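Please produce the structure of this protein holding S-adenosylmethionine.
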Amino acid sequence: MNSQPLQAQKQAVPGAFDRVARRYDLLTGMNPGYRKHLRWSAERMRLTDGPELALLDLCCGTGLSTEALVRCYPRAQVAGLDASAGMLAVAATKPWARAVRFVRGDAMDPAASGLPGPFDGVLMAYGIRNMPDPDLCLRRLFALLKPGATVCFHEYSVRDSRRARLVWNAVALGIIIPMGLLTSPGSDIYRYLRASVNDFDGVAGFEARLARAGFTDLKTETMDGWQAGVCHSFLARRPA
Ligand SMILES: C[S@@+](CC[C@H](N)C(=O)[O-])C[C@H]1O[C@@H](n2cnc3c(N)ncnc32)[C@H](O)[C@@H]1O
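Below is the modeled complex.
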């Protein structure tokens, strides 16, 4: 996939994840803070747990982000959407998975995949960067939310900081790509990951994109560890 322009590669991302699905949890398990940071993002949403609470994990993958939602909001109705059958198959094996409705579909249009909402909260972890048209994705997502609902985008964003770009490229070139090649030989997905993060919005640019889509109450925080300044939790709200 890496010989194609980045935009064309985005269409091939779910297929590439199919091929690394069985090793995905192994690789992310070697990334210190990966699960803890997802849990922070889920907690930051500060939703009131209960059987009426409707949550969506967009680009849920093998369910690591879904698990963060399920652990924070154990009484909620949680749905997870991903386009990769392989990633969803791994998610379905998790001990908590019976409580979740997993759907295969395109995050560009969850309603077309039978998830019309309305949702009280949506978490999208490491997803928005892969969308072929992020503005359209955000507008459609906005329409799926109840008034006052909360969204959280958990994403790498390094464009605004020279230090963050240096750290990201050192970690990607020195650790993520070599480990990815060891655990999933032949896959280009980790080289795509490096390039797509370098290409993605800076923090200010993504916040502006959220505001253009109608979101308010933007609150962005970064993570600790090597991800400080590199990985961010962008919280926003559909106005009540
Ligand atoms: C890096 S993984 C993140 C998985 C999970 N959210 C986590 O935090 O571990 C990105 C996921 O996005 C999915 N994805 C990419 N493009 C998609 C699209 N257009 N529609 C639905 N899922 C997509 C991939 O299949 C992959 O499972």
